[in-house]
Each structure stands twice: as C-alpha cells, then as structure tokens.
Amino acid sequence: MPASALMNVMITAARKAGRSLARDLGEVEHLQVSVKGPANFVSAADLKAEDILFKELSRARPGYGFLMEERGVVDGPDESHRWIVDPLDGTTNFLHGIPQFAISIALERDGELVAGLVYNPATAEFFTAEKGKGSFLNDRRIRVAARSHLENCVMVTGIPHRGRDGHDIFLRECRVIMPEVAGIRRSGSAACDLAWVAAGRFDGFWERGLSSWDIAAGIVLVREAGGYVTDLDGRQEMFEEGGIVAGNEAVTNDLRKLISKCS
Fold first, then answer.
1. CA 250 to CA 259: how far, in whole Å?
2. DSSP label of 1
3. CB–CB of 85/92 below 8 Å?
4. Which CATH superfamily, name and number, covers 5-142?
5. Which of 34, 45, 65, 197 lies 20 to 30 Å from 260, alpha-carbon distance?
6. How many helices (H) and strands (E) does the chain have?
7. What is the pLDDT of residues 206-238, one digit of tens each?
C-alpha cells in the first residue's frame, strides 16, 4: 500500500534522524552523555535526533504543535494538530550498543491519535499506521497475534529502574502473571514493545509510569493491527495515568484481571 502524503512526511523525518542515530551508535563509546536523572540518560545523539525531527516536521507541516521528550510542549498556530515525538526510546539500550531502540512519532488531530510511526534504524524496520488504514511493517500488513489463552502467550513489560518508584508492585505483578503465561520479556523500549505487539511477535504488553511520547505511536499501531489498548483499569486514560495494557481483546482482558490482584 503506497504511503500517504502524511506518512511520507513522517517517514522522511524519521529516516533522516535515524541516519544520525545510526552513525552515533557506531561511536557510542565516544558520545557525550549528561545525567538527566538517576539511570535516565540523555545523550548528544538523543538531542541531535530531536532537533532533526523538529526541523523536518515543522518544515513539512508548518504551524503544527509539538509534545517532545526534551523540548516539552511547543505550541503552534494550528491548534488542531500536534506531533508527539520521542527521538530515542530506549536510550539506555542505545548507550550500551544494544540495537533495540526507536524513533517514535505520532500525530494527534483534535485530541485524537490518527497516525503513528515507530522506526528502529538498527534493524531498518518501519512500523506505520494511520487511523482506518491498518498497520504495516515496512510494506507488509501486520496483525496482533490471535492466541487467546495466556498459557500460550509471551508478554513484554518494562522494569522500573534505579531512581523510579514501582519496584514493589512490579515484583507483585510478575509473581502473579509469570505462572500464567509462556514467558515474560523486557526489551527496554516501550515503543518497540507496542510495535512488536502490533506485529504479533509479543502477545501482550503492560507497563506503568510511561509518558505520552513513549506510547502514542504504538497505540495507533496496535489499534490499527486489530488490537486493544487501555490503561490498567480498562479506561482510555493512558496519557493521564501512565499505565497501559495492550494485545488482542482476550489477552488484554485477562492481563488486566491479573494486574488488578496486585494493587
């Protein structure tokens, strides 16, 4: 399916920023790194990629607003449209030379997510979706996995790192969920996790303490791949609450039931 004009804009911006990240990945031991918080690094590569994305998207769609991990909110005269951008989701992986990270771009129109892109420059995988048009991995249509029994499912989640709250509840969740599923994985990038759920590689995903730029593009991908996305209570307040559950309908329902036992 040929990419739309909107998706071409997103792909072009991501590809340009991705070339910058790929170069820096090869020089990862030489990157200048500053500490933004405990175990939460922001690198020169991260800032450079965000600058490229900001310039490219602003040039192609002048007037659109932004919500970006480093810049924060940037208002534009077009109040109906807002880009939600994470230039490097999986920074810790990147800084250790682990090729599991992504550029994440979503477009919000009148408060509704209408397009999403997750791009891993290390694997050359473009996950793209627009509302009503399906989800794609490069040029191939993707769907969420059809497995409906948790015992056959591989789940993915995020582990709260040093300096973040939530260690105790995460361990409780693992103790409850682990005996019910085929396995639990942790990749280090929420954007990649959601993209892989959309592609059927993972059956389900849950995590707490996320920001909107971590998950906005992935939400579109999962929905357009036939999946379901809610917050931990089954509502649509992922941005407000920071918690998320994703998968097919049966998996998300069963996963939420298990999580509810841990609160």
1. 14
2. -
3. no
4. Fructose-1,6-Bisphosphatase, subunit A, domain 1 (3.30.540.10)
5. 197
6. 8, 15
7. 999 999 999 999 999 999 999 999 999 999 999
- Full-model pTM: 0.94
**Total residue length of the chain:** 263
* 150-260 is a CATH 3.40.190.80 domain: yes
Residue-wise pLDDT tens digits, 157-171: 998 877 677 789 999
Tell me the average pLDDT of the chain.
93
Kindly write down the DSSP assignment for every residue of 130-182, as one continuous string.
ETTTEEEETTEEE-------GGGPEEEE----TT-S-HHHHHHHHHHHGGGSS
> What does the alpha-carbon distance between residue 183 and residue 123 come to, in Å, rounded to a whole number?
24
Residue 36 has pLDDT above 90, yes or no: no
> What is the token pair recorded at 246?
């994703």
> Quick one: DSSP state of residue 20?
H
Query: For the CA atoms of the chain, what is the radius of gyration?
Result: 17
Tell me how far apart the alpha carbons of residues 245 and 229 are, in angstroms, rounded to a whole number: 6
d(Cα 211, Cα 161) in Å, to the nearest integer? 15
Strand order in the sheet with 183-185: 183-185, 154-157, 204-207, 244-247, 228-230
The pair of three-digit structure tokens given for residue 241, joined into one six-digit string: 């609450």
Domain ranges, ordered by start, for the chain: 5-142, 150-260
